[in-house]
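Human: I hope this is not a bother. Would you mind checking the protein record under this note? Thank you for your patience.
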Amino acid sequence: MPSTELNDKDLLDALAPVVSDNLERHIAVADVWQPQDMVPWDDGRNFDFLGGTDWAPEQSTLSDIGKLGLTVGVLAADNMPSYHRELAGRLVSGPWWRWVGRWTAEENRHSIVLRDFLVLTRAVDPVELERVRMTHMTTGYSLPSLHLLEILATAAFDEAASAIRHRNTAAQCGDKVAAAICERIATDDELQTKFFANLIDAALDLAPEQTVNAIAERVREFRVPVIPLPGDRDSTGELATAGIYDPARETELVFGPLIAEWNIAGRTFEPAGEQSRDELGKLTV
């Protein structure tokens, strides 16, 4: 007999203990770090407004790959109010709300350290960065209308992709301080990925067909956010060219590891989930 489909309220209630346990685990294993400790303040100097010198291109010592990776990172993290709004409107109770607050605070810390580093070291034009940042935040970010399981799967994929971007930026940026910042952020991203992945794993036990179908749907529709760059450049193509993040490798680097972790291929589903299981199983071959 087919299993009864659970609505989002049922799922929120049923998964709340899993959220609570994983929030406790997340806080216990997450390193405590301070954004101000990662920024080389001795390298700073005033801009013209306070009697100093305004930015000029020759002041930057960061590689082009470093500028690209860190600029995308700060714009993505700085738009956290939009991401928070999209999640908070759905996850409004008990441990869910506490997790959204924690996750938002961690992302805001990423924005702080990246922007401080870029402006203080004069790695990029701060006026142009602020113009693009204002445009990006004003435009905002809007998820399509998703159910809870689709939101959780999307979040797991998004954080996994973000970790990859930061690890690759760290490896290629050519600056020890910038690399250390990116490595620290990537570690946070990976812990956030684990949080969302654990919720999906629990949901697969609770509502297997619904969950596997939601995962397959989000794999089909997954797109990393397009970040506007100075000069109206497109982040997707530039990140791929620089070897920071290539959508063509998402199956290998983003979807495949999570699908394997969830043991999709080894699970048994009713007919309603078999097609999705088979579809996802092919991504780990």
In short: Residues 176-206 form the longest helix (31 residues). The two ends are 31 Å apart (CA to CA). The chain is about 65% helix and 0% strand.
